[in-house]
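Try it yourself: sequence plus NAP, in.
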Amino acid sequence: MALPTPTQDTTAVVTGASSGIGAEIARELARRGHGLTLVARREDRLKALADDLAQAHGVRAEVIAVDLTDADSRGELPALVEARGLTADILVNNAGFTTMGPVHLSRRDQELAMVRTDVEAVVDLCTIFVPGMVTRHRGAVLNTASTAAFQPLPGQAGYGASKAFVLSYSRALGAELKGTGVTVTALCPGPVETGFAEASGLSDEEASESLPRFMWVPAERVAAAGVEGLEAGRPVVIPGAANRFGALAGYYAPKSLVLPLLASQHPALKKARRD
Ligand SMILES: NC(=O)c1ccc[n+]([C@@H]2O[C@H](COP(=O)([O-])OP(=O)(O)OC[C@H]3O[C@@H](n4cnc5c(N)ncnc54)[C@H](OP(=O)(O)O)[C@@H]3O)[C@@H](O)[C@H]2O)c1
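Structure, out:
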């Protein structure tokens, strides 16, 4: 069992817990008796989830509203957890978003915010929280990557590269930590209906154009697979058979064949060509 046994004063820090996959991961952990520290920017949504989890599962659920693009705010997280008398035994780096469209039409501030959230915050929070776990010989880290990690992704170039980073980083960190009592799992979902596509300016219908329905997995199932993978100490979890096949195909197929196909089919690139 790779998941630490929950106690009164241990907590699972879950970023991106205000919606979608992160909220469902928090639910899965609460169901197993883990206290939660819910992190994102939308405090009202975090508070509503914290109340829900405390009521439904009798766990302690704390809320810390933070913009993870801000290094100083991120740096305050351990002190804020400690001030609540808690020790972070589980870290879930799940917060993230994507930009869509060709790089030459992208906005610099959005591209940088994406890299800060999807890459920099993951590295930072692992660097901040993992040393204590190693000292205590107990801990588990779940980093949300994506099937976009398995090949470059024209139309979401920065996002695909960010998730490839998260996958590579998680695997390397997991290998370093072997035998320390701390495990690392990279969760690599395919498409999930969470409002994630919409947040990038693309409707779920537009996103569905290039991603057939059988690839879509509900957020609850993605979260359940992630937490089961964490329990089993699996290095990589890809929810859904179609997504496992797609990830393998994307990884092994010659990029000279795959990339023109992806570039021709990506809905945001099609849209840019039409406009
Ligand atoms: N949905 C998919 O198809 C899909 C597929 C593969 C991987 N993923 C990955 O899954 C993870 C969760 O995405 P989701 O689908 O659940 O989307 P979502 O519902 O839009 O959730 C994204 C979460 O990230 C948080 N977040 C974004 N920027 C933040 C910032 N600057 N500071 C703090 N929190 C921030 C959001 O909270 P606030 O807005 O309240 O800050 C929200 O809780 C992401 O890493 C995403 O890349 C999603």
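One thing you can check immediately is this: The chain has a mean pLDDT of 96.
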